[in-house]
């Protein structure tokens, strides 16, 4: 009995220490962001930031690129994971290793490789135009998000009977495109949305690729404001934190709703 009580006390102590480690700096940042006016606390820093055209333009730009990254990533990952699961299970360890490489290779190495291959003097000069650079940045974001998106989709595929669903669809005369569109994608909604929210959070806060490719993204804007102002960077940090956790919260809501619907069906 004493051992169980001690274990429970140790668990709560670890939770309190961990919460303090993460929450105290956040609370201090939030409290500092409210001190822009000398007479007391106010949300003036947030008002200044949210009304700044630079904030609106950079956040809108990053949000658009996040949506494009999600679209490209889903079109790349879902058919690949489906085909590996169905026809090439022996290649699964290799595919998993490849999708983990962005966690090992620093983003700065990745972007210098892009500049070497796709610079204005490269064989495919993406950086020769703004739209080409934007496209290159989307490809870079897809690479950074690949470990998270692939694992979400792969987990979703493991939870359904891919082979039986595919054989049933083929027996009804469906081709591969219809199988993906009408069978696989609908059954992977939760997994795809989970990967999409993670991808959105990654793109919104990314700095290295956007900075070195000289694009007006939200990450470089955060750095620029942080280098030149006092209270606005703290407000931006809180806003970025809320955006990230909103994406994570939506992911949890979608997952729970999906699980509840599955339980009701059973």
Automatic annotation (TrEMBL):
Species of the source: Chromobacterium alticapitis
Family to which this protein belongs: Belongs to the binding-protein-dependent transport system permease family.
Stretch forming the signal peptide: none
Record keyword Heme present: no
PANTHER family: INNER MEMBRANE ABC TRANSPORTER PERMEASE PROTEIN YDCV
Keywords recorded for this protein, A-Z: Cell inner membrane, Cell membrane, Membrane, Transmembrane, Transmembrane helix, Transport
GO terms of biological process kind: transmembrane transport
Principal subcellular localization: membrane
Protein name: Spermidine/putrescine ABC transporter permease
